[in-house]
Specification:
It is built from 17 helices and twelve strands. It has two domains: about 220 residues, Rossmann fold; about 230 residues, Rossmann fold (3-Layer(aba) Sandwich). About 45% of the residues lie in helices and about 15% in strands.
Length: about 500
């Protein structure tokens, strides 16, 4: 092949078609092998004690389950305590590499947990999280060889948690000794001293994960820095961005249904018929602004930080946007928060935001009995004719969940009944199969606060009394939906 006379192609990029033989480059072969999602994935945690491994494991388990992936966390410490009483196995001398009996007990617990990991994957599980220190290369090689030797269809990815931030370590240590059974019947001072000795014993032998060990993700100081090696497919698309987002900040997240709309019977579509806020919707928007400002100010005051603007996100539906106009003029609109697309089902009746705490399933059953039978078989995957399924909504909400997890200031989300059911399912940690039944009260705020253990606390706040409810909207819903849609109210 002759050298081209015109060198512009070099700067613009060569336009020859890539030849298949480039696939024989060893690195490309490895990437092609890892890009396809494995039948089963084992996320093996690595790190010294009190670095946040269990926090990350619990949060990751919650997210992956919410994504519809069959996921389970296996904490080796729990297996150790079940085999040997915490009063014995939780003390620092139990982790001394020179204590042969204790070492054998720890290895048995680790092996039993790994057997359960493989049984879970064999039974149809998709992702197993193996939560332990796994602090030396020999141990990690054993885990990888046993998993891949069990079947080549399973793969191992190490998730190493590295932390040298003294403040973060101190918080993690205090949380661990306050909640772990290992330190029962010990004073705080005794427990902290014993934990420090345990950590020192691990530090003596600790080996960081190397490239030669295969696929890994390294999190530095709870995701302030990320390093990844040979992570493709599902791991690169969902797990890695999620791990980059999570942190231990305590900011509140507020979840709210859009305010009630004003009836416009001549509008061409059901969505347009409630495009503006009714009188009760306007009252709610005012109450919402007052409530979230007060809670946000309290957060900044207790955090001892300078107040920053709240992060506000709404759907693109005009009523949702109008619901935050008293709160702020700076907000993001995203179609990810738009209601479940129900196709022709619900047109002119479900398209109107009813006052029920749950969707009008009785009316769906009455009007569309054939669809209802199919829906009950698989509420998560069943797609409304010409519309979406609940799982479709989860897929478009994935990026928003990561965005909320990454945010370090208070967050306000204004959306609609079906979408909020799925968001609350994530924060509550409940089964997705039951999300469609979850009540989401109107004219209320669900305040979500992260917990140190990796979960969330949710509290509901009612903002409007029954006197402020819009009688016209109530009448509209009652006339078109039937008596089952009338909201039960309490003072």
């Amino acid at each position: 092949m002759s050298v081209p006379a015109n060198s512009d192609s070099y700067y613009n990029g060569a336009n020859e078609v890539t030849t298949p033989n480039l696939g024989f480059v060893q690195k490309q072969v490895e990437r092609e092998r890892l890009t396809n999602d494995a039948l089963g994935v084992v996320l093996v945690m690595v790190g010294l004690p009190a670095r946040g491994k269990s926090f990350i494991s619990r949060r990751l388990e919650r997210f992956l389950c919410w994504r519809g992936l069959s996921t389970k966390m296996f904490n080796v410490g729990k297996y150790r305590r079940e085999a040997t009483a915490p009063e014995e196995s939780g003390r620092s001398d139990f982790f001394d590499s020179g204590n042969k009996a204790a070492k054998q007990a720890r290895e048995r617990a680790a092996a039993t947990a790994l057997s359960d990991v493989l049984a879970f994957l064999d039974g149809g599980g998709q992702i197993a999280i193996y939560d332990a220190t796994n602090s030396v290369a020999e141990r990690r090689n054993y885990i990888r060889d046993r998993v891949t030797g069990h079947t080549s269809k399973y793969c191992v990815i190490f998730v190493e948690v590295i932390c040298d931030d003294k403040e973060v370590i101190e918080v993690n240590m205090n949380n661990k000794v306050s909640n772990s059974p290992d330190f029962r019947n010990m004073t705080m001072e005794e427990a902290l001293n014993d934990l420090k000795i345990r950590i020192a014993k691990y530090e003596e032998v600790y080996e960081s994960v190397k490239d030669a060990e295969g696929s890994y993700i390294k999190l530095f100081n709870l995701s302030s820095k990320i390093m990844a090696n040979h992570c493709y497919g599902r791991i690169a698309k969902s797990v890695l961005p999620y791990l980059m987002g999570i942190h231990v900040g305590a900011r509140p997240v507020f979840l709210v249904r859009a305010g009630a709309g004003e009836e416009k019977p001549q509008a061409p579509s059901s969505c347009d018929r409630l495009s503006r806020l009714s009188s009760s919707g306007q009252s709610f928007a005012s109450s919402l602004a007052e409530f979230v400002r007060a809670r946000s100010q309290r957060y900044w005051r207790e955090a001892g930080k300078k107040e920053e603007p709240m992060h506000v996100v709404t759907s693109t539906v005009p009523r949702a946007v109008a619901s935050v106009c008293d709160t702020t003029l700076r907000h993001d609109q995203t179609s990810a928060l738009n209601p479940l697309d129900k196709g022709p089902i619900g047109d002119r009746w479900w398209g109107i935001e009813c006052f029920q705490d749950v969707p009008p399933w009785h009316e769906v059953q009455r009007r569309y009995p054939d669809f209802w039978v199919q829906f009950l078989k698989d509420p998560l995957q069943c797609r409304f004719p010409g519309g979406e399924s609940y799982m479709d909504v989860i897929r478009r909400l994935e990026g928003l969940i990561i965005e909320v997890e990454a945010c370090t200031r208070p967050v306000l989300i204004v959306s609609h009944l079906t979408v909020l059911q799925l968001l609350l399912s994530y924060f509550h940690g409940t089964s997705l199969d039951e999300a469609w039944k979850m009540p989401v009260p109107k004219h209320s705020v669900v305040e979500v606060l992260p917990s140190l253990g990796g979960g969330f606390q949710c509290q509901e706040h009612s903002l409007l009394s029954t006197a402020c409810m819009d009688a016209n909207a109530d009448k509209l819903v009652a006339d078109e939906m039937g008596p089952q849609c009338k909201r039960t109210r309490t003072q």
